[in-house]
Amino acid sequence: MGIATRSQHEPGPRSTLSGMMPRQFTTVCTTVLLSLTIGDLALAQASKRHEQAVQQKPFGTQDGRPVTLYTLTNANGVEVDTMNYGGIILSIRVPDRKGQFADVVLGHEKLEGYVPNPPYIGAVVGRYANRIANGTFTLDGKTYTLPKNDGPNTLHGGTDKTFNKVVWDGEPLKGKAGVTYTYLSKDGDDGFPGNLKLRVTYTLTNSNELVIDYEATTDKATVLNLSQHSYFNLAGEGTSDILNHELMLNADRFTPVDKNLIPTGELRAVKGTPMDFTTATKIGARIDDNYEQLVLGHGYDHNWVINGKGDGLTLAARMYEPTSGRVLEVSTTQPGVQFYTGNFLDGTVTGKQGHVYKRRYGFCLETQHFPDSPNHPDFPSTILKPGETFKSTTVFKFSIK
Ligand code: GLA
């Protein structure tokens, strides 16, 4: 839009301008013109950024296959880096209450940092996220044996072709800041039955939400539990532990565990225990209490039963970091959320910018079905049959307070 049109048709500015000396008038016009031009440029820039919402670049090779890094950017300048190796989220850059951006997830700068990735940093986990007791389950009368990689248990799908360490196919979304990963998990991989076709889509919205949509179909009955294993630190990754964060969990019950972190089958009320986060409480306030479940978990490493689970998205958790003002809200269609306080991080992993990830330097909010559901017929079912489509959505929404 030209300055002449604007000053001719807007009475206010014209009367102010008309009372000025010619030189002043020219200066004002030039200034206004310049600032409008800069404004237009900024707008053009923003819409350009919006149009180029997904950028991609080669990020190395794994198992002889190319790995691509996708950068999702929204209109607010929020950025998410993700790659098709393990569907891993490498970074999430969001502002604090002063508008300063920081990367709020643990991770590595290069692909090599994630091979191997014993803490499952940033990855999509499956075929069965969390634990299956004694690496075995029975389905339709047949017993399946899985690799054990967590004492007597199978954790996060086993050892071989787990979803966190295979190369998926990647396809950027059109007209959106998003990417879809697809992968075929073959019949018998890590002992699980059925050829399982998977689809995981990350979409970054202009409301600063990272939406994760999961979809799966199978050609034989199988069990399935999918989750996202990002470790967050809302103060900025690698800077401190997470004990100062304040957590609200929308859950009146949790699933207590035995010494192998396998649910006992009980759904226990949180009321009166250090597992009660129904009102926002500092993570560090009770984490080292002499409460049997915290001793067994070495801190928080439990599944909470999300209140009021219907079919739709339900708020599961709200995390607030007081120094930065950053807030993360997690909503999901899943029935449970594993709140894990990085108790097994022990300083042996060095991540971005040489940051050493010490104990409790990150927290995970892994939305999922309950651990060991295949061996607990009373828990919500994790069975997927041919002809059915598994669908679930989890939203990580970032804001400030
Ligand atoms: C999950 C488990 C934890 C731990 C991490 C990975 O969150 O519940 O016990 O195994 O994964 O280190």
Any overview of this molecule?
The protein has helices at 3-9, 11-18, 22-51, 292-297, and strands at 54-62, 65-73, 79-83, 89-95, 101-103, 124-125, 131-132, 136-139, 142-145, 154-155, 169-172, 177-185, 196-204, 209-218, 222-223, 227-228, 246-249, 253-255, 268-269, 281-282, 301-305, 314-321, 326-332, 336-340, 349-350, 356-357, 364-368, 383-384, 390-400. By secondary structure, the protein is mostly beta strands. It has a 9-stranded antiparallel beta sheet with strand order 11-12-13-14-29-23-22-17-20, with no helix packed on it. The two termini are 37 Å apart. The protein binds alpha-D-galactopyranose. The site of alpha-D-galactopyranose (GLA) has 11 residues, from strand 24 and strand 27.
Taken as a percent bin, the fraction of beta residues is: 35-45%
Rg over C-alpha atoms, rounded to the nearest angstrom: 25 Å
Could you give the count of β-strands?
Answer: 29
Arrangement of strands in the largest sheet: 11-12-13-14-29-23-22-17-20
Unreliable stretches: 1-52
Bound molecules: alpha-D-galactopyranose
User: Helix segment count?
Assistant: 4
Distance between the amino and carboxyl termini: 37 Å
- The coarse overall form would be globular
Q: Which structural class should the secondary elements be placed in?
A: mainly beta
Q: What integer is the average pLDDT?
A: 90
Indicate the percent of residues in helices. Answer: 10-25%
Q: Major beta sheet, specifics?
A: 9 strands, antiparallel
